[in-house]
Specification:
The protein is mostly helical and 500 residues long. The protein has helices spanning 15-30, 49-62, 85-97, 108-120, 136-144, 192-202, 218-228, 258-264, 268-276, 291-297, 312-325, 328-341, 350-364, 373-381, 385-389, 392-399, 403-416, 423-437, 441-453, 461-472, 486-498, and strands at residues 2-5, 34-37, 101-104, 150-153, 160-165, 169-174, 182-184, 207-211, 234-238, 241-242, 308-309. The protein is built from 21 helices and 11 strands. β1, α1 (15-30) and β2 (34-37) form a beta-alpha-beta unit. α6 crosses α7 (218-228), α13 packs across α14 and α19 (441-453) packs across α21. The longest helix has 16 residues, at 15-30. It starts with a strand and ends with a helix. It binds glutamic acid (GLU).
Length: 500
């Protein structure tokens, strides 16, 4: 099996296209086949190298590595259409000499007038075929005189084109509704329908899996396969990914590109797993499965024909799952941009990274996305007792009988002991405060929490407190914002309370 993903580098990778790439990748991996990446950059006006690079980077970020492609080559290269122009020209010449294609001199104005006339008559617009009757010799002469011409394919009359779509079943088109498609534009560049056939044939693609927006192109392509004597691949057209209002997912709905979801803080494995679930189900009880397992279960025939709705809530659900499973060192690396954005981290040293690796799991278990991690851990870096003491939830804790005494006692205890670098040391201090103040449970832990973290809620104290004191021992060279230790926090909080 040979499949391909063939993006046009005219913008960012849309999640709908990423899903198409994923389904191709899953098919290839299911059967030990080859996944080809081909860049369809013949629209010179709109294609850019930046977009191509961004698409490659997004696919790599998703983990959808290709086996043949523009950067790594392969036996059927080149894999960029702009480098294959000689092939399209030679096949077009072959079709012209066989009488299956012809030069068309109709001006854009004439074509537009024909189109308008058809629309006015309530007919689907279709090229009239006017230039079919221009004799070859005349065409050559006109071109020699400098007249510009496109090459068009001669669609045979009175034919029914049927293909068995792997997702949609039999699809039928009658050639009476198909105008002669352009193969080569007047500048010699190929039109999509032509380049795609030449490339899919020469690259020995066995299965074309693409968006449903291409379904009406398929009969044109099948006719071109036939004329060139190539065996066509099998086709599967995927329903487009929709927004909640059942229109194709677009900017109006919010984020649409892989890059945007990445910037929002989703993990690639969550996006991949979620995209696989749009219109397909892996079966069994569990939908959250590693991509290799998805590939093992994947079957293109089991993909639904109706449109899938993009549901960001469900994506966040998948992301929560993968955040809990992810290796902390990887999470710390991935969260760096977000820590930087919050001004908590600059250029962390190895010790700084090690510290982040140790503290990130504390937050990862309770967030939807990576970008929420720094705010959950902000308490490590920011401590302002006066501000904290004016927060309604903290005031509520402080209003409790004995809360101030707990904080005074905590400050005293911490002033004489070592830092609370581990949970045992913290528990020993809590036991001492408990014994001296007679407070327990909430009456004990809530004041301790507000005095050490500046907030009435947050991660487990058993984890948060040692994290604070380990952070306090890091030097400024760690590349993190400074962290104030528990001893200093409790003293400052007790002091602040004396003034309120
Ligand atoms: N370049 C086309 C697109 O991005 C490819 C369509 C196809 O897979 O044939 O829509």
């Amino acid at each position: 099996m040979r499949v391909r993903f063939a993006p046009s580098p005219t913008g960012h990778l849309h999640v709908g296209n990423a899903r198409t790439a994923l389904f191709n990748w899953l098919m290839a991996h299911h059967s030990g086949g080859t996944f080809i990446l081909r860049i369809e950059d013949t629209d010179v006006e709109r294609s850019t190298r930046e977009s191509e690079e961004a698409i490659l980077e997004d696919l790599q970020w998703l983990g959808l590595q290709w086996d043949e492609g523009p950067d790594i080559g392969g036996p059927c290269g080149p894999y960029r259409q702009s480098e294959r122009l000689h092939l399209y020209r030679s096949y077009a010449a072959e079709l012209i000499s066989a009488g299956d294609a012809y030069h068309c001199f109709c001006s854009p104005e004439r074509l537009e007038a024909e189109r308008q006339a058809a629309l006015a008559a309530g007919q689907p617009p279709k090229y009239s075929g006017a230039c079919r009757s221009v004799p070859d010799a005349d065409a050559l002469e006109r071109m020699a005189r400098g007249e510009r011409a496109v090459v068009r394919f001669k669609v045979p009359a009175g034919r029914e084109i049927v293909f068995a779509d792997l997702v949609r079943g039999d699809v039928v088109f009658h050639t009476s509704v198909i105008g002669d498609p352009v193969l080569l534009r007047s500048d010699g560049s190929p039109a999509y329908n032509f380049a795609v056939v030449v490339d899919d044939a020469l690259m020995e693609v066995t299965h074309v899996v693409r968006g449903e927006d291409h379904i009406s192109n398929t009969p044109r392509q099948l006719l071109i396969y036939e004329a060139l004597g190539f065996t066509p691949p099998a086709f599967a057209h995927l329903a487009l990914v929709m927004g909640p209002d059942h229109t194709p997912l677009s900017k109006r709905h919010g984020a649409t590109s892989v890059a945007e979801f990445r910037a929002k803080g989703y993990l690639p494995e969550a996006l991949v797993n979620y995209l696989a679930l749009i219109g397909w189900s892996p079966g069994g009880d569990d939908e959250l499965l590693p991509v290799d397992e998805l590939a093992r279960r994947f079957s293109i025939g089991a993909v639904g024909h109706s449109a899938g709705i993009f549901d960001e809530e469900k994506l966040a659900w998948a992301d929560r799952h993968y955040l809990r499973m992810a290796d902390p060192a990887r999470l710390a690396q991935l969260a760096l941009t977000f820590f930087r954005r919050e001004g908590l981290v600059s250029d962390p040293s190895a010790a700084g990274i090690e510290y982040l690796t140790a503290v990130v799991p504390m937050a990862a278990a309770s967030v939807d996305r990576l970008d929420e991690i720094p705010s959950r851990l902000r308490f490590l870096f920011a401590f302002d007792p006066r501000k904290a003491a004016s927060e309604p939830e903290v005031m509520e804790v402080l209003a409790h009988d004995g809360a101030r005494a707990v904080i005074e006692c905590l400050a005293r205890e911490l002033s004489r002991g070592p830092r609370l670098a581990d949970r045992e040391r913290f528990r020993a201090v809590v036991a001492a405060v408990k014994q001296q103040t007679g407070q327990k449970a909430k009456g004990l832990f809530h004041p301790i929490r507000v005095a050490l973290t500046g907030a009435a809620s947050g991660p487990e104290l058993d984890q948060a407190v040692p994290a604070i004191d380990r952070g306090a021992e890091l030097s400024g060279a760690a590349g993190l914002a400074p962290i104030l230790g528990c001893r200093e926090r409790a003293a400052a909080f007790a002091e602040a309370l004396r003034h309120v």
